[in-house]
Each structure stands twice: as structure tokens, then as C-alpha cells.
Amino acid sequence: MNRVNVKAMSEELFGNKKCPFEVPENYFGDFESRMLKKMEAASATETAGDKVGSVISVVKPWLAMAASFVIIALMYYQVPKLFSDDADISQSVSGEEEFINSLALIVDEKDISEFILTGDANVVLAPDSVFFGTFSEEELAAITYFE
Amino acid sequence: MQPDDKEILYLAQKVNKKNEALALLMKKYKERLYWHIRKMIIVHEDADDLLQNTFMKAWKHIGNFRGDASLYTWLYRIATNETLNYINKKKEGLLHEDADIETMLGNKVESDPLFTGDEIQKRLQKCLLALPEKQRLVFNMKYFDDMTYEQMSDILGTSVGALKASYFHAVRKIEAFIKNEVF
């Protein structure tokens, strides 16, 4: 490899070795004061961040403990309800009972027991049954016709 | 008189003397680091930002400075990394546009009121912008800053042989650009 001799480089080709750039006036004179201000601002921000961080680090375990108590309480009260069918059953039973009780006021006991035993789909109602009291004449005629 | 590196490092360890140490560090190295960055970046505002970042990083990590290298080498290394990272980011950003950093910086050399060189120097700067970043870096450090290959090796973490080869190629490419009137 040829040795590159810097001195031999023609000034005509490379120009003089003086740096061809300048800086704005007083740039280097102001530099330290600008940097110190910037660093003080940065360290103040860091300190504030550290304070917030330290408060959070103190409160965090307490918050976690409170949250875990809330979760346990919710699980204790809500999970059995979510996974149990009791609620639906009790609701449907009470609805059925209410219906039967209301019927007991207007229908005799024999009709009710027959209704309970055979189910309403299989019950063949006589046209004079009190059950027909709730149907209009046209509906009654239709039922009678299909029967 | 320039402050001693040992004195700066000693003061940096003292909590109430940190600002004094920082002021001494900047006083001693700001100009050398600025020109090192500016020759690579061309634009004054960008060089100013990178110089500030260099001192911020140095200041943040000065407690970890083990003294394996001199303070001067360490600072140059930070400044060089900042500069090369900036150039790479700029290149990535320009990938989406129909432009390249060499042309962009070449135009800056043409229009920058803070460029005070003559036509030959302007041509040299344009030739340098056409080189790979590391060759440009080596050329600047050798040609303008008169650094030894050993000093450059400490800063760039590259062997002396590789640096000599880089410089040789850089010079030959620039000569070829000029002879072929590329710029």
C-alpha cells in the first residue's frame, strides 16, 4: 500500500487545513451557563420524578393488599351466585307457585291437581271450564274446533 | 491554563463540587468536541444538540468512569457514537422521502452562512460527504485534527492498520472525485 503523506497533499486539491466552519457569535462563551441551566432543570425533573416514585413505592404494597381484599370479598359473595342454579330455580318455583295460588282462588282443587299432574299441554278443558274465562269467544271456538 | 483531568474527576466525586467539575470539563473539551461533531454533521444547530447530549451523557455516567482510558478519549468516544447514531437515524428517516443525507448536507454547505471556506474547501467537503461515515471520520481526525493513529484507535476501537487503510482509501477516493470533476 502506498504511504499517504499528508504534507505532500496538494493544497490545490484539498485546500488548507483550516476548518471552514464558524459558530454564531459568543456561542462558546455562553455554552457552560446554558448547559448548567439545562442540567439543573434536568436534575430537578429527575428529583421530582424520584419523589413521586418514592411515594408510589410506599403506597403500592398497601394498594395491592386492599385490592386483594376486595377481590377476595367479591369472590366470597358473588362467585357462589354466579355458579349456582339455585337462583333461577327459586325464581321459577316461586312463579309457578304464585300461578297455582292464584288459580286456587277461582278454580276447584280437582282441576288444579289435574293441571299439575298432566301439564297444561295435555289437559283437555271442557268448554265450561273456568280456564276459558280468559279466552275470547273466537279463541274458544278455535280451540274447540281443533280439539 | 487548562484544568487537569484528575482534578475534574476528583471534583466530580464530591456532591457539592459537581457543578464546578462539570464547568471545568466543558471549558476544557467543548471546542474540540464541537468541531469533531460539526465536521461530521455540518449543521451548527445539530452539532450544538449533539454536543449537549455528549456532556449530558458524560455527566450522567462520570461516576462509572473507571479511568481505563483518558477522559479525552472517553468523551470523544461518546461524541462519536452520538454523531454516528444521529446520522443513522437521519438516514432511516430519509428512506421514506426521495432524498439522501449526502445531498442534503451538500446543499447545507452551499447555503450555510456559517461556512466560511473557499471553493476548494467547499469541494473537499462535498467529496467527504460522498465517503462512508467511518472513512469521513478517519479523514477528519487525521487531516484536520492531526491525531495519531494510536489516538484514533483508542477512540474508535479500530486497529491502527485498519485506520491507515481507511485513510488511504479516503484520500484516494477524494483525489479521484476531484480529478474526474465529480464535484
Automatic annotation (TrEMBL), chain B:
UniProt keyword DNA-binding, yes or no: yes
Q: Which GO terms describe its molecular function?
A: DNA binding; sigma factor activity
Tell me if Lipid metabolism is a UniProt keyword of this record: no
The membrane spanning regions, by residue number, are none
Ranges for domain RNA polymerase sigma-70 region come to 25-91
Q: Which SUPFAM superfamilies match?
A: Sigma2 domain of RNA polymerase sigma factors (SSF88946), Sigma3 and sigma4 domains of RNA polymerase sigma factors (SSF88659)
Q: Which Gene3D superfamilies match?
A: 1.10.1740.10, Winged helix-like DNA-binding domain superfamily/Winged helix DNA-binding domain (1.10.10.10)
Residue ranges annotated for the RNA polymerase sigma factor 70 region 4 type domain, each copy included = 123-174
Q: Which family does it belong to?
A: Belongs to the sigma-70 factor family. ECF subfamily.
Q: What's the protein called, per UniProt?
A: RNA polymerase sigma factor
